[in-house]
Amino acid sequence: MTPSHHLPAELLFDHAAGTLDPALAVLVDGHLALCLQCRVKAQECLAVGGGLLDAIEPVAMSEGAFDRLMARIDNGDVTWFDTPKPAAPSFGEETTDALIDVLPPALRPLGRRSLATRRWRSIAPGVKTLQLDLPTGHQGSAQIIRVDAGKGVPHHTHLGNEYTLVLSGAFNDHSGRFARGDLQITDASVKHRPIAEPGETCMVLAVTDGPLRLTGALGFIQRSLGY
Amino acid sequence: MPNADINEREILADWVESVAENGDRAAFARLFAHLAPRLKAFLRRLGSADAAAEELVQEVMLTVWRKAASFDRRQSSVSTWVFTIARNRRIDLIRRESKPALDPEEPLLRPSAPLPADTIAAETRRDAALRAALAELPPEQLDLLQLGYYEGKSHVEIAELRKLPLGTVKSRMRLAFSRLRRAMESYQ
Fold it and tell me: Mutation test of the interface with chain B: which of A52, A75, A100, A110, choosing the one with the most B Cβ atoms within 10 A?
């Protein structure tokens, strides 16, 4: 089914320019995997990058640059593209967690790695979270929230923005209904209580950006959720 | 419609295909002459020092040589393809700084999933229309695009840098993209 809540222009922009925080990048990739309409737009935004590359005032390369490149090619130099995989990818290969089935294929390695290194934590009746294993040192955080059918996430607010991508099932809150592939963006002023629809477990990818807050968005969310 | 642009685009695509099919060094030399100085200018604006920019250009062009067979002229122009390679390389470098033992399967290191061919009609004319529309963009919209794509600023950083409310930056981005999209769509 086609999602009805999509990526806003500024996320498509940051995605194409390559400036997304890693946590948000996971969310954007997740939505793109589930939404043809946004995939077309994302390709258009990359084409804008190509157009700007064409339009830029060239800067001369140093003397002999091409010959040096050909020497590397003849030498069999590899690029980062060809760099062999480290010995880690078998990480959690055998996991049978239902999360893996609902993740778009591109996010499954991240899901497996997270399941192998983190645990689901219960934060309320029928509600569990799993932190995703993302690069540290960035502002954003990403977690999976798993809500049993008919259960709700406790009232909460957050610092910065919260971005929620539905992976399975559906939830409702004051602003509407969100099903697989839908993206909800709420800012710090919003206090909401999402409730999963009956019939199916609702799994979402929840990302916070918490820009320029030194106190840490994650700690605040955990406190407000009653960790 | 600028026919020179269309021809240039087709010629670049021919060269990449010639590299893919025949390992054509003469074609690759012409590609290098066209792309490398633009990539260097681009990477300089993103904040790389001269030597670092040249090294990155070498890596991107090495990738162009090695991955030429993955280029598909129905999906994108050569410029867009090369821009995407440079973008992915830049993301990868930022990743490595924060997490050396990176999973190469990380989705961010790969280009977005390819589009089905039937959604990409008359890509060539669209691309030329895009270039023309870029040249006619209002200055405040072009400024945002350049800050993002050339200088690596996120929309939040752009708002701070230009002392604009976040809402203004977002709506200008929406306006810029819808304008560019209209230009592209009119040539489908």
Answer: A52
B99 in contact with A, Cβ within 8 Å:
yes
Q: How close A173 comes to chain B (CA, Å)? A: 24
Which of A203, A24, A23 has its CA nearest to residue A97?
A203
The answer to whether residue B185 scores a pLDDT higher than 70 is yes
- Minimum-distance CB partner of A88 among B103, B146, B180: B103
Sequence ranges of the domains in chain A: 9-50+84-224
Which has more pLDDT, A88 or A27? A27
For chain B, give every domain's residue range: 1-115, 121-188
Query: So what's the pLDDT on residue A186?
Result: 86
What residues have CB less than 8 Å from B93, skipping those under 6 apart?
none
Fold held by B1-115: Rna Polymerase Sigma Factor; Chain: A (1.10.1740)
Q: CATH topology for B121-188? A: Arc Repressor Mutant, subunit A (1.10.10)
pLDDT band at B174 (very low <50, low <70, confident <90, very high): very high
B168: contact with A, CB 8 A cutoff: no
The yes-or-no verdict on residue B21 having pLDDT over 90 is yes
* pLDDT band for position B162 (cuts 50, 70, 90): very high
Q: Which residues contact B23 (CB under 8 A, 6 or more apart)?
A: none
User: Which fold is adopted by the domain A9-50+84-224?
Assistant: Jelly Rolls (2.60.120)
Residue type at position B133 = A
Sort out which chain A residues have CB atoms less than 8 A from B104's CB and list them.
Answer: 83, 85-86, 89
